[in-house]
Amino acid sequence: MEMDYPLHPPGTLVDTIYDVIKKEIAASHLKPGEKLNSRVLAERYQVSETPIKQALNRLITEGLVESIPRKGMRVRMISWAEIDEILELRLMLDLFFVSDVIKNLRENPELTEQLNNTILCQTACLDLIEDADYYNRTYELDNRFHELYIASSGNSKALEVFHNLNSHVYSSFIYGRQPKEQTLEGIREHQNILGTLVNGDEDKAKELITIHISNARNHIYAALKHNDQL
């Protein structure tokens, strides 16, 4: 089976600005409730206001930004109920395609290599914890692993659903606040999940995926509680 779903296609200036703003939100550089002024952002990123406005409109459709009548745009506050629903759907999606992923990894060794390389990059990223882009990079690699997992199901519609679940809306509650040891725990969970998939152990893979999503839920809940957002 040929896998031809591009995960990160080349983009335009609007795509670039969109990615930058999304990363800043994920890393809590732009905080929930913070006002977003297109003129200020245009000066900040050294571009015109047009791509800024287009990027912000895309972020509105994804639920990261909201437009308030007569008040302008701001980073949207995310509720625990919304995050919990997203994680529940993520778990359903991951569990449903376990057998397909096992089959396709067996038939396409390059998929296993891509997943393993992502884990290796995650591990290497731990040494960059003092780097300003550490949390963005950590999120991107974690998301890349899960994106590759769904892509490995061979179902292009499932990949669309994954993208539409807006997993990045809760990323800052994990990567912007958790210690290095917690990040390492997540990487080990990825390693164990991949190992069971390669070995064809469907039941064990489902068990580990369930634990992985449960741990993410617990980390996010703790972060929200710590910041009085519950």
Structure description:
By secondary structure, this protein is mostly helical. It has 2 domains: 13-75, Arc Repressor Mutant, subunit A (Orthogonal Bundle); 80-226, Up-down Bundle (Four Helix Bundle (Hemerythrin (Met), subunit A)). The protein contains 11 helices and 3 strands, in the order H-E-H-H-E-E-H-H-H-H-H-H-H-H. It has a 3-stranded antiparallel β-sheet with strand order 1-3-2. Helix 6 runs antiparallel to helix 7, helix 6 (109-125) packs antiparallel against helix 10 (180-198) and helix 10 packs antiparallel against helix 11 (202-226). It starts with 12 loop residues before the first helix and ends with a helix. Pfam families: FCD, GntR. One of its GO terms (molecular function) is DNA binding. Keywords: DNA-binding, Transcription, Transcription regulation. This is HTH gntR-type domain-containing protein.
